[in-house]
Amino acid sequence: MKKRIITCVSIAFVIVSIISSLYAFNWPVEDFGAKNMQSYFGQLRGKLISPSFIFENPDDVKAIGDGKLLIYMKDDVNDTSMFPSTLGNCVLISHKDDLVSVYGNLDETTMEKNLDSKTNFSQDEKIGSTGTSGFQVRVSNLEFQIFDSKNGSAINPKIFMPRTNNEIPLVLSNITLQNKNGSLFNLSEVKNLASGTYRIYQGRNSVACPYKSKVTINGVVVDELTFDTINEENSRIYINGKKQYLSNVIYPNSELQLLGEAVLTPGHSTLGIEVADYLGNKKNISFALIIN
Predict the structure, then answer these.
(1) Is 248 left (phi over 0), alpha (psi -120 to 50) or beta?
(2) Of 271 and 112, the one with more pLDDT
(3) What does the pLDDT read at residue 202?
(4) I want to staple 133 with a disulfide (CB 3.0 to 4.6 A). Which of 11, 75, 182, 268 is the partner?
(5) Can you give the pTM of this predicted structure?
(6) Distance from C-alpha of 13 to C-alpha of 181, rounded to nearest angstrom
């Protein structure tokens, strides 16, 4: 089975903010707390950025809001360019303003039973139960996405959902700088660096990832990243920030995740790093550097 990721076309953050204020969706499963998360939106999956929220445990799956049944697909059908077979047995429901909710890895029997003669769904109406299909062939859990079908954008589901009462605690560790030549400098070991442009990485958490990250030099913000949408242009996947960062820059390997970029000029500099989750909980760290 091919393992590809749904990708998308650029959408402005202000549009996402406007849309999010108009909707009151519910989570598609009863247990949506931090302990039931297998993978956040924006996490590394294979070699690409995942547009999915993947839950950990088996559960019944409900429609997040009123909508129309757009399509359902079985695990044994061929891939489509928009929705690949990694989703297995899946259901797509269209909502207002071109939003589409996607429910993957469903149990075929309960899915077909609940979709029998259905054309519309009400909020919280059962779609089916989790199954073992698609990418999650050994685990019964839900793979969930929200898509802007007009712009082709994968959108972070947390923008539309009631806020959870907890998040996986953020950790800032293994802070590593990469220069333009690709050389890596771990700041636990190196404080003296040549001047130039550096990408700032942290040790990747295998489940969560920061909703926002900020990089400062001597207290001045020089870069920010926000995991609101995953975008594609000319077949290249990227995340928006002050710049557009491609997936292979966000995740250069399975151990590191990009927090931002900074230009270090000669002299003494304080590099500040801040990460935040969707509840606004923050973690900060700073490094006193000597730049030659």
Answers:
(1) alpha
(2) 271
(3) 97
(4) 75
(5) 0.83
(6) 32
**Region 82-104 average pLDDT:** 83
Phi, psi (rounded to 5 degrees) for 158: -65, -20
Contact 259, 202 (CB under 8 A): yes
Task: Give the DSSP letter of residue 106.
Answer: B
Residue 102 pairs in a beta bridge with: 92, 145
What is the arithmetic mean of pLDDT over 170-195?
Answer: 96
User: For the segment 252-273, what is each residue's pLDDT rounded down to a tens digit?
Assistant: 999 999 999 999 999 999 999 9
Tokens found for residue 31: 């247990």
Evaluate whether 103 touches 61 at the Cβ level (below 8 Å).
yes
For the chain, the straight-line distance linking the first and the last C-alpha, in angstroms and rounded, comes to 51
Residue with tokens 């993957």: 104
Question: How does DSSP assign 57-71, residue by residue?
Answer: S--EEE-SSSEEEEE
For residues 142 and 220, what is the distance between their CA atoms, to the nearest angstrom?
A: 41
Q: Rounded CA gap, 208 and 73, in Å?
A: 29
Residue 195: C-alpha distances to residues 66, 177, 217 (Å) = 55, 12, 13
Residue 44, classed as helix, strand or coil, is: strand
Distance CA(181)–CA(74), nearest Å, equals 46
